[in-house]
């Protein structure tokens, strides 16, 4: 249906060609009138011809190219974005957009672009053209340009080298990412979209955000952090997601409390569901899944989707199946191995006489890596920091034993 729609619409080149042909015909017609008819008769016919058609034809015609068309990126707009920067010397407004996003290299070459409201002169087979870039922020009834949803400038320093994580799990994840990165031909041969979904789940403070940073740095991908709470309905979600680019990560954190329906809607009758949606439109799980599986998958390449949640059990099973969330990673409480990695990072020590009693305590007390990190940062002196950590874990153990005792008393 989409392909037939585009085959029925003439291309921009065809429109200009027709316009050129009409212009040539007009020139030939005027030449014939000049050679055959007397001047007075010729002027009379031309004036009548001009008066008659001037009310129907305007010598100036405007093509409006919007960035989005039915929530899908307008490829003509993309083509104009590629073509117009080659005409920067023809900007008639005397201004040029200069930018740089490379914070790591201050000597990097700046990027040149077209400012909003700038005018560029051009021609097509002798027909003069003028390009103008407009923004939807302008009070103009014709919106020719819409601001884009940009990826965040990513400067997080966490890498897999510095990430405190169980070595076996870390190596398995790295192998999976590398296989995905080199799997373009495989995904094409099996007819699947070149994307990979990861679900990071576990208690708060277990390093889910740090793992996302390590993945982004390992893959050299940009991150699109989707705050689902600010998305009012499925149509807006569709519009936002179509603006993302290839080789990027779509991140949705805390999915269980994001505002989207974590489980499918109750099985009410269709009429009640329709009334509920009209009264309180919002992003639905089905809307998210349908778009990720459908249109978005067919329009993108080499994408990673990462969902994080503190409560995996609250998520609908439809969200967790392979093809949507291919890899499930449990981000758990601190283990002896993770503790040693943290101690090496923050205290610059790989061995200490307090390591053995601390390792035993980690088998009895649940503490998150974030809690351990906070204690290790209290002092640069390993003796002071580790003693403080032992006291912290002992307090947690006593609190837990007190709570467990109260529960047993209540049950008795």
Automatic annotation (TrEMBL):
GO molecular function, one term: ATP binding
InterPro entries tied to this protein: AAA+_ATPase (IPR003593), AAA_N_dom (IPR025753), At3g28540-like_C (IPR058017), ATPase_AAA_core (IPR003959), ATPase_AAA_CS (IPR003960), Mitochondrial_chaperone_BCS1 (IPR050747), P-loop_NTPase (IPR027417)
Source organism, top-level taxon: Eukaryota
Keywords for this protein: ATP-binding, Hydrolase, Magnesium, Membrane, Nucleotide-binding, Transmembrane, Transmembrane helix
Residues passing through the membrane, by range: 12-33
SUPFAM superfamilies in the record: P-loop containing nucleoside triphosphate hydrolases
Entry keyword Membrane: yes
Domain AAA+ ATPase: 194-335
Catalytic activity: ATP + H2O = ADP + phosphate + H(+)
Stated family: Belongs to the AAA ATPase family. BCS1 subfamily.
Protein name: AAA+ ATPase domain-containing protein
Organism, scientific name: Capsella rubella
């Amino acid at each position: 249906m989409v392909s037939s729609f585009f085959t029925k619409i003439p291309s921009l080149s065809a429109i200009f060609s027709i316009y050129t042909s009409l212009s040539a015909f007009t020139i030939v017609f005027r030449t014939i009138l000049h050679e055959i008819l007397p001047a007075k008769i010729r002027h009379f016919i031309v004036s009548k011809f001009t008066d008659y058609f001037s009310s129907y034809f305007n010598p100036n015609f405007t093509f409006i190219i919007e960035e989005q068309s039915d929530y899908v990126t307008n490829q003509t707009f993309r083509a104009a974005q590629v073509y117009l920067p080659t005409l920067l010397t023809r900007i008639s407004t005397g201004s040029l957009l200069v930018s740089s996003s490379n914070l790591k290299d201050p000597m990097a070459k700046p990027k040149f672009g077209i400012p909003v409201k700038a005018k560029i002169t051009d021609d097509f087979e002798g027909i003069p053209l003028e390009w103008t870039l407009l923004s939807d922020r302008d009070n103009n009834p014709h919106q020719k340009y819409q601001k884009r949803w940009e990826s965040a400038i990513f400067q997080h320093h966490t890498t897999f080298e510095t990430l405190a994580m169980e070595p076996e799990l870390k190596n398995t994840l790295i192998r999976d990412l590398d296989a995905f990165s080199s799997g373009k031909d495989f995904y094409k041969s099996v007819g699947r979209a070149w994307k990979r979904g990861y679900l990071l789940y576990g208690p708060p403070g277990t390093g889910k955000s740090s793992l996302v940073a390590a993945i982004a740095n390992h893959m050299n991908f940009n991150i699109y952090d989707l705050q689902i709470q600010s998305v009012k309905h499925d149509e807006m979600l569709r519009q936002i997601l179509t603006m993302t680019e290839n080789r990027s990560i779509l991140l949705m954190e805390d999915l269980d409390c994001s505002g989207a329906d974590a489980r499918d809607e109750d099985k009410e009758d269709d009429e009640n569901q329709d009334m509920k949606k009209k009264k309180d439109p919002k992003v639905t799980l089905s809307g998210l899944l349908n778009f990720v599986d459908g249109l978005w998958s067919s329009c993108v390449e080499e994408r990673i989707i990462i969902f994080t949640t503190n409560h995996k059990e609250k998520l609908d099973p439809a969200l967790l199946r392979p093809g949507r969330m291919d890899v499930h990673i449990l981000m758990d409480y601190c283990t002896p191995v993770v503790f040693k990695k943290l101690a090496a990072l923050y205290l610059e020590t790989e061995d200490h006489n307090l390591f053995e009693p601390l390792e035993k305590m980690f088998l009895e007390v649940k503490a998150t890596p974030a809690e351990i990190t906070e204690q290790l940062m209290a002092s640069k002196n390993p003796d002071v920091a580790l003693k403080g950590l032992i006291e912290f874990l002992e307090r947690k153990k006593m609190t837990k034993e007190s709570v467990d005792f109260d529960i047993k008393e209540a049950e008795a």
